[in-house]
């Protein structure tokens, strides 16, 4: 079951650069782990902004919640979830 | 080059049902044609609404414009385009 | 799996009264049918407005979409879907 | 008399983790206490966000205000209250 | 129990003037009737706009809904309800 | 001449509790003083929120400005003023 | 006492041109009459839009309401009123 | 003096196709005329939407207003004007 | 050439009072200077809020920018500029 | 391929002035470098605000993202990207 998740990442402009680098690295590792699990099926950058559009494939709303809150940058997210259904004109 | 396109379809509630059926059919045929061309790579229904989230893969902004305006329901769309870039944590 | 669905019903102010009465009756029958199926678990009126807050219990986003679009007043809805997860402090 | 209460919890991203753990625990205890009283009838998590949708059953607007402001996280809430009425198509 | 009700009246600009005069008259009569009942305690015009701010005193959310929907202009309203509680600094 | 004033009070969640108690007390005393003067005719709490809906009766816009800015919590207000006129259907 | 009034004029795009010309003429005459009375002290066009920014000088909110609703195009207005006070740095 | 003008063109979806073709043609001719005059210096299509972003070079706000209202599609525009100044980092 | 400038002044609620008094004084002096130059033709306080509505008379967008950024409180402004044109019904 | 980029620069009002001067200088140098490369084709100041409207000419969404994030003030930007297509009435 698919969900489109739109995320704005609101990192403070004055964050310590070492802390920022570390946060980005743990975020990257967790994002890769989730992608390799098959649950996190697409991850795109919104051009020009610290924002992402992602597609998740989960068993349930509960699982989606668990995955998103496991991301290290979660406390900095403004986040919108759109549950997706099959489109009658999709050929997939 | 990818774009996320979010579309709300604002069909008048009192549209003639034969006209509506015909419009849906030509829309479906054009959507399939675009998907088969490889330009229209994902098409999802927003659950519970006459709305879509789509991913297009185009050569340019001009090509994207041409494809979207070729859809028969285009005059009924409220539409938002988000240009996408590669995300540094994407494994694709 | 639960979803909160917020619906504004935008009926035209000048709708023919017989047509309106009929539409309300078929809507009522379908709403009762869905409630009796166990899929439509709560239905509340927003005080003072032609608007509802509902809770649906569905297998999937696809099923939710199917149920909502089966409501006769669907073409008149402005609708927002919020997927719900278990809250860690809920005692249910 | 029912109310739907939508809450966004805006905890500072840099809150001390011990303080945060303690705040979450007192919030959980008060939420359980209110649920056991029968006044706080539903509590759901909005999937993917630090946000809740709740249903309260109160004697009056005053009682609702008293209950909500008794929650330890109240100072961090963005909150919307929707008073609910019986829906003519509800079977409850 | 008090509620603040903010109403925008969206009458079509091209409404037939006789129909409009009649609608205003039945609205006025019903508004007076509700005020005389003690349920509709304040009625103010928003200066410069076809909009009102009102205070209702009702037993319950259900009663408020019943009163508001009994107004003849209800189908033309955009309406917001704010449930009110006693303010700790009020001297009333 | 009446004005409806809607106020959101944005106190910092981490305000020192002694300072907060003192601020609330001076605010309460000034609010009582204004009510006793007959200028501040209604003061209601928005149920569930640190927000107020008030009615002021002033000689002029200038007087309204003077009264509102004399409230000790003024620097923390988000505030909207709606000038009110007599409603043709009001019985007062 | 001054008010800033911001008006968007929402004339239907398909209005009959003779009717439109007549409406513009009666609006113009009433606007001139109000300006000559000294109540309507400034009238500016928002560059590029069918919108105005105006300053009215009235005895009361009631008088402002009376003047604005006397404008023939009133039914087509989206209108916002801002009550003005003397600014401490104004040299007038 | 430059202005950025953002225009959404809200043509009715059911406009007669001959009338639409004619309107587009007169609009095109006027747009070309204005560009050739040197007043209308850039005209871009917003990809995927019936919307434009334009740059005008005018003597004054009045001239800008005159040019924009001379466009045949003006009654169908939702329009935003942004006055532009020289940027200190611009090399032009 | 006229511009309407709407300014919200977002001073931090916890600003040091001596610093605040000094900032208000230099702002007042600069505002008077600009008014005496004839460029800053009207300055009104929005009743009940730390906000202003002003009218500037400038040679160009560049001059307007220069004047506004010369105000000492500029870093605390949320600001909207509306370029004004002559209104066909204005008698000035 | 062109993009319109609208940027609000949200510098903290209390930023250290030396730090601010340095940040503005490195921003200016990078902006000049990008303009000289031919990728950053227009840069305008929004009159009266710390905001810009820019036009970029890039090979792809990825290149646009790379250029924008290379600007030293990027962490302080609120930013909107509008992909542009050729307008059928443009004479360029």
Automatic annotation (TrEMBL), chains A, B, C, D, E, F, G, H, I, J:
Tagged with keyword Phosphoprotein: no
Q: Does the keyword Isomerase apply?
A: yes
Instruction: Provide a Gene Ontology MF annotation, just one.
Output: muconolactone delta-isomerase activity
Keywords attached to this Swiss-Prot or TrEMBL record, sorted alphabetically, are: Aromatic hydrocarbons catabolism, Isomerase
**Annotated pathway, please?**
Aromatic compound metabolism; beta-ketoadipate pathway; 5-oxo-4,5-dihydro-2-furylacetate from catechol: step 3/3
Q: Which parts form a coiled-coil structure per UniProt?
A: none
Q: Which InterPro entries match?
A: Dimeric_a/b-barrel, MLI_dom, Muconolactone_d_Isoase
Q: Which reaction does it catalyse?
A: (S)-muconolactone = (4,5-dihydro-5-oxofuran-2-yl)-acetate
State the superkingdom.
Bacteria
EC number annotated for this UniProt entry? 5.3.3.4
Q: Which residues form the Muconolactone isomerase domain?
A: 1-89
Q: Name one GO biological process term.
A: beta-ketoadipate pathway
Pfam families assigned? MIase
Family membership noted in the UniProt record: Belongs to the muconolactone Delta-isomerase family.
Q: How does it assemble?
A: Homodecamer.
What is the protein name stated in its UniProt record? Muconolactone Delta-isomerase
């Amino acid at each position: 079951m698919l969900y489109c998740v739109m995320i704005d990442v609101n990192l403070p402009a004055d964050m310590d650069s070492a802390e920022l680098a570390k946060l980005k690295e743990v975020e990257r590792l967790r994002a890769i782990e989730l992608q390799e699990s098959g649950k996190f099926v697409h991850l795109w950058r919104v051009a020009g902004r610290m924002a992402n559009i992602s597609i998740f494939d989960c068993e349930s709303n509960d699982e989606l919640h668990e995955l998103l809150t496991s991301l290290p940058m979660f406390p900095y997210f403004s986040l919108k979830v759109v549950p997706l259904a099959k489109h009658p004109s999709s050929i997939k």
